């Protein structure tokens, strides 16, 4: 974790943001204790079968500490461009590591800095492995309710994970020294029979948090130069796969655990000295990347808003490959084959899922003494479900006018007239 940057490739654009996954997971573990201090009394009230505070706190702390243990170089990018090829994510791989390599050690844990487990209690590594993964259909059927409720602190709207990285990343990039009110958000949170609930007095803090999180995605994680680097990495990773790992990380776990950004960024540029011409050429390109010679140039961008009932899947922006084909289709004939990349970066303001991760968070109306859906709050409901930034990258910046015009045709800024007066 000390050798994998928290900000994927954004640390190349924001020079002070050199923090790693290690600092982040330590912060998440700390937030776990803060949340348990606030939430345990209400959890025990609605789930009388919940174990001791010592068990709950130790469980959540370990889930926070280990939730990123499956990450590879460049974090989520590696999920999409390597692990996905083996049907894995960093969460499923992390769960495997917890079960097979860390389980015995976790069962021996007896206390944490703030509380202690009862004598007969022992941490269940399977519960930690389950908590760190995205909810799947039917996976909560045989789990105790208190554990299902606790998982919302790792997969809901505001979690011990995203509450840490929003504060940390905002501070380290210089975006903001205090981007949202963490203390108020925690103070007005509690468990009810429906799940994690926020008092109406905390809604302003929640909405501020949601907006800041979305702004960080748009201004930091999806910065135009960050995406240019990612687009360069896409090509490099595809070409480098034969030399990255022996195969499926689960089958070569020791090699995977030694595979970090530090090792990759030292080893890959050295490939240029290889006797294999193909590997040598790829090594040269890695060296160019480290010298910040990025072949892809930002050309233009347009933003699309998706509200309740809207679907990105029904648009031409359902995938990057589909969008590239659509762009080429409206370009002049002499430009249809130019080197071109499309980046579709989606920022989720508020979840709109109908799946297993739905219904993680609720609102308490103190006047009516009722627990309601968060969407009953008018300001919450006014937030977009998501926003999509569509960007074009090319290698020749002089083509910007034609490419921008083509993108405008696709997003609806171009009117197509009828052929006849009918």
Automatic annotation (TrEMBL):
Any single biological process term in GO: dGTP catabolic process
- Tell me where in this chain the HD domain is found: 21-147
Alphabetical list of PROSITE patterns matching this protein? HD
Q: Which Pfam families match?
A: HD
Recall the GO molecular function terms of this protein's record.
Answer: dGTPase activity
Presence of the UniProt keyword Isomerase in the record: no
Which UniProt keywords are present, listed alphabetically? Hydrolase
Its name, as the record gives it, is Metal-dependent phosphohydrolase
Query: What organism, scientifically named, is this protein from?
Result: Blastopirellula marina
């Amino acid at each position: 974790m000390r050798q994998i940057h928290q900000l994927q490739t954004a640390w190349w654009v924001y020079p002070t943001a050199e923090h790693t996954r290690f600092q982040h997971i330590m912060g998440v573990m700390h937030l776990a204790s803060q949340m348990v201090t606030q939430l345990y009394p209400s959890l025990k009230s609605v789930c009388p079968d919940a174990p001791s505070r010592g068990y709950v706190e130790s469980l959540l702390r370990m889930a926070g500490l280990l939730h990123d243990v499956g990450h590879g170089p460049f974090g989520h990018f590696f999920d999409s461009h390597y692990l996905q090829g083996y049907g894995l994510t960093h969460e499923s791989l992390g769960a495997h590591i917890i079960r097979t390599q860390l389980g015995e050690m976790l069962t021996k844990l007896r206390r944490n800095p703030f509380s202690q487990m009862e004598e007969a209690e022992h941490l269940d590594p399977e519960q930690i492995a389950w908590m760190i993964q995205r909810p799947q259909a039917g996976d909560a059927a045989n789990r105790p309710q208190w554990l299902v409720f606790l998982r919302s602190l790792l997969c809901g709207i505001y979690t011990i994970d995203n509450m840490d990285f929003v504060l940390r990343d905002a501070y380290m990039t210089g975006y903001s020294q205090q981007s949202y009110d963490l203390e108020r958000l925690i103070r007005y949170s509690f468990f009810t029979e429906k799940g994690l609930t926020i008092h109406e007095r905390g809604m302003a803090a929640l909405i501020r948090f949601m907006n800041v999180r979305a702004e960080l995605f748009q201004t930091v994680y999806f910065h135009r130069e960050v995406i240019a680097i990612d687009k360069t990495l896409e090509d490099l990773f595809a070409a480098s796969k034969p030399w990255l790992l022996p195969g499926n990380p689960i089958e070569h776990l020791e090699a995977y655990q030694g595979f970090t950004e530090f090792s990759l960024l030292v080893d890959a540029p050295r490939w240029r000295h290889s006797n294999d011409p193909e590997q040598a050429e790829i090594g040269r390109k890695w060296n160019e990347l480290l010298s910040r010679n990025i072949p892809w140039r930002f050309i233009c961008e347009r933003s699309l808003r998706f509200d309740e009932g809207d679907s990105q899947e029904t648009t031409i922006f359902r995938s990057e490959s589909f969008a590239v084909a659509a762009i080429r289709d409206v370009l002049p004939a002499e430009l249809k084959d130019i080197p071109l990349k499309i980046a579709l970066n989606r920022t989720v303001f508020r979840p709109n899922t109908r799946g297993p991760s739905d219904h993680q968070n609720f609102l308490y109306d103190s006047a009516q003494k009722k627990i309601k859906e968060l969407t009953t709050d008018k300001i919450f409901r006014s937030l977009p479900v998501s926003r999509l930034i569509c960007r074009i990258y090319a290698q020749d910046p002089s083509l910007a006018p034609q490419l921008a015009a083509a993108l405008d045709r696709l997003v609806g800024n171009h009117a197509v007239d009828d052929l006849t007066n009918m």
